[in-house]
Amino acid sequence: MNSVATRPQAYPHRLSVAPMLDWTDRHCRYFHRLLSRHALLYTEMVTTGALIHGDVARHLRYNVDEHPVALQLGGSDTADLAHCARLGEQWGYDEINLNCGCPSERVQRGSFGACLMAEPQLVADCVKAMVDAVGVPVTVKHRIGIDRTESYDFVRDFIGTVSQAGCQVFIVHARNAWLKGLSPKENREVPPLRYALVHQLKRDFPQLTIAINGGMNSNTQIAEQLQVVDSVMVGREAYHNPWLLSDWDALFYGAEPFEQTREAVEAQMVDYMAREMREHGTPWSHIARHMLGLRHGMPGARHWRQVWSDHRLKNLPAHDVMAHARGKHNAID
Question: Where would you tag: which of 13, 71, 223, 226 has the fewest CB atoms within 10 A of its CB?
Answer without folding.
Answer: 223
